[in-house]
Design goal:
single chain, alpha+beta, Helix Hairpins, D-amino Acid Aminotransferase, Chain A, domain 1, 24 helices
Length: 687
């Protein structure tokens, strides 16, 4: 045997060994060799494939590491529609659906119940047992080819245990613990594990995908079926082919099968069976236990088990009639996307916003809802004309949560190449697109409106509408101009009488007394929010001069030495405080009399709120903005939260409180008024 033939034989042996040990590790949870021994086998195969690339198999386990080549994601038509599911949100409605199916059926009906994992749908094509294509769901008719990225996912087989040709549908997701860890490292740019998974699958370099521990499970197989096969048997067969299937599956029938099905339930420890009357109790148990899972599920799917009955029940244009999703949480509203626009914020972030048909949510009419970023839209599969469910996250930001019904022939949204405000090319950074032009009109407006807002410099009578007028009139061009323009130039213009102009002057003058921590935060510089500012001050960077000196030296190491400040934040601090435009703005603000150094502080008050968690709602006479009340809580050892939860111990309620008050009463949270709060503070100087 010559050297080449010997290498070929060894490569085949190594691939078989690696695949066997991968199966033991990922599917059977019973590894037989150490990680070091596994790595040695893998590295040997990599070296041989590098030496003899023409001998590398298409399904080689080395495909799991990905490559640095840029992927393209061409559109691919699905062999048949990948439809959505109809949905119910109550046990009563689910019971009605089950009753209708059993009543209309000719003979016994059995059902299978599976977890609805909150991930990104994937369609896997195999030919003679080898993975040939992996496609996103897209609009249900056309998806994107992401085969190279999916090939890096450890528990998706590159070759099945049998030479099967077929199409399999499943879900790709990220465990909650992995999501929290990785998202924190990326400054929490993703809203949830589903978005993180979808965004990862769209990365252009498969080597980057390989670094994320994505997981999968498969719940439908569309290969040729044996005559009389039922869905519960298909799930078992899918598992034997090498896929991960749901570990918690329920099978329900009033004529429970005999020994034919016994091996299935012996082989799958988490599978259960019962009568039709036990479906609802099974679902309620799963609902109550969802918080104990290591991954997110947003419901359960109930499917007719018999394929013959499925065929007779058929489909609507939107969903199969033989399956339904029991969703745990109902949407707060349903509306239609009429348009999608891109808004540019003060940092240059480009955020897609859906203009929807106005709908009533949580006490107000909503017509604009965030779509976060391109990955979020891709994960939703949302486009103009779609019917969508809307929620209010944390009772604050309205967001599109799910596409309820696709508009036939709808065009998928694509982020524009140019900034809609200044026509500068948008640049993708992580999950978001950015306009890098600091002089972009939208960024300038956002910067000034942020600076003057409550919770920042709180310049009374200089809200965003007035800021817009000042910009349109050419009286200001950036933040520092607030302290240089003459408010009297507004006199006699519509909406600006002597009283309002006088109040604007007063508000501007008062803002000069805001402390350094507030001034620095209000500049709206990237990564330099309230938490980072406090960390800097506590570490001795208690003046702008000390910070700019560190930036001048490029002293990233000292900044990263502060607990809580990572390399990305340190780099952005140095970069921005070395920017001539930023420094010119700071110099002009300092000349105007703003505070750029911390004042001497007296002793801290007693920690009377230690161990307590406070939230705030309404408006106050002595705390404007109300965040100042929460500052007093922090000074006295308490924690502060933005929403009332079961862990909230106190709610500070002022005039015109919102929905938080009702929620606090429902939870039995202690509600405190302004006068009582002042008494609890002791020597607080009222304003």
């Amino acid at each position: 045997m010559n050297e080449r033939d010997g290498a070929k034989a060894r490569m085949l042996t190594l691939a078989l060994l690696i695949n066997e040990h991968r199966d033991l590790y990922y599917r059977r949870a019973g590894p037989r060799i150490t990680d070091r021994e596994y790595d040695a086998l893998f590295d040997e195969l990599l070296a041989l494939e590098k030496k003899y690339p023409e001998l590398a198999a298409a399904d080689s386990p080395t495909a799991r590491v990905g490559s640095d080549l840029d992927n393209t994601f061409p559109e691919v038509s699905h062999p048949f529609p990948m439809l959505s599911l109809d949905k119910v949100y109550s046990s009563e409605d689910l019971g009605k659906w089950i009753d209708k199916v059993t009543r209309d059926a000719d003979g016994d009906v059995s059902f299978v119940v599976e977890e609805k994992v909150d991930g990104s749908t994937i369609v896997l094509h195999f030919e003679d047992g080898v993975l040939t294509r992996a496609v996103t769901r897209g609009d249900g008719y056309v998806g994107n080819d992401i085969t190279r990225n999916v090939g890096t996912i450890d528990d998706i087989p590159l070759r099945l245990t049998e030479a099967v040709t077929g199409v399999f549908r499943g879900e790709i997701y990220l465990d909650i613990a992995d999501f929290k860890k990785l998202n924190a490292e990326m400054d929490n740019i993703y809203a949830n594990p589903r978005n993180f998974a979808a965004g990862t699958l769209r990365r252009k370099k498969s080597r980057e995908v390989a670094r994320v521990p994505l997981r999968s499970y498969v719940y439908e197989g569309f290969s040729e079926r044996e005559e009389g096969l039922e869905h519960i048997e298909v799930l078992d067969r899918i598992s034997k082919l090498g896929f991960r299937v749901g570990g918690s599956v329920g099978f329900f029938s009033d004529s429970l099968p005999g020994s034919r099905y016994d091996p299935l339930f012996e082989a799958h420890e988490g599978w259960e069976r019962g009568t039709l009357d036990e479906i609802i109790p099974f679902i309620e148990r799963r609902r109550s236990g969802r918080d104990k899972l290591g991954y997110e599920i947003d419901g359960l799917v109930v499917k007719v088990n018999q394929y013959g009955l499925r065929d007779s029940m058929g489909f609507t244009a939107h969903h199969p009639r033989w399956a339904i999703a029991f969703k745990f949480e109902a949407p707060q509203a349903v509306s239609t996307i009429e348009d999608i626009e891109v808004q540019i914020g003060r940092t240059g972030r480009a955020t897609p916003v859906a203009r929807i048909r106005p709908v009533w949510i949580s006490g107000s009419t909503v017509s604009n809802v965030t779509l976060h970023n391109e990955d979020y839209i891709t994960a939703l599969g949302a486009s103009i004309g779609d019917t969508v469910s809307i929620s209010r996250r944390g009772d604050v930001i309205p967001a599109v949560e799910e596409v309820v019904e696709k508009k036939p022939g709808g065009t998928a949204f694509v982020m524009p190449e140019l900034c809609p405000s200044c026509s500068t090319p948008l640049v993708r950074d992580g999950a978001h697109h950015f306009c890098k032009n600091r002089s972009c009109p939208a960024r300038v407006f956002g910067r000034i409106a942020f600076f003057t807002a409550r919770g920042q410099m709180d310049i009374e009578n200089l809200g965003w509408e007035t800021v817009r007028r000042l910009l349109d009139l050419g009286l200001i061009h950036d933040i520092s101009d607030i302290y240089g323009f003459n408010p009297d130039d507004l006199l006699d213009r519509e909406g600006f009488g002597e009283k309002k102009v006088s109040l604007i002057k007063e508000g501007i003058e008062k803002s000069k007394n805001r402390p350094f921590s507030v001034v620095l935060t209000s500049l709206g510089l990237e990564e330099i929010g309230p938490r980072v500012v406090q960390l800097l001050i506590d570490a001795g960077y208690d003046s702008i001069d000390r910070l700019t000196e560190a930036a001048r030296k490029g002293d990233v190491e000292s900044l990263t030495g502060i607990d809580g400040i990572g390399p990305k934040t340190a780099d952005r601090i140095v970069e921005q405080l070395s920017d001539p435009d930023v420094m010119e703005m700071i110099d002009r603000l300092r000349e105007a009399g703003l505070q750029f150094a911390e004042r001497e502080k007296g002793p801290l008050p007693e920690p009377v709120f230690a161990g307590q968690t406070w939230c705030v709602t309404g408006s106050f006479d002595n705390f404007k903005p109300r965040e100042r009340a929460m500052d007093e809580v922090r000074k006295r050892g308490g924690r502060v939260t933005s929403a009332v939860t079961g862990k909230t111990t106190h709610l500070l309620a002022g005039m015109n409180p919102g929905s938080k008050l009702e929620k606090a009463r429902d939870l039995g949270t202690e509600v405190v008024g302004e006068e009582d709060f002042l008494s609890m503070l002791g020597g607080y100087e009222t304003r």
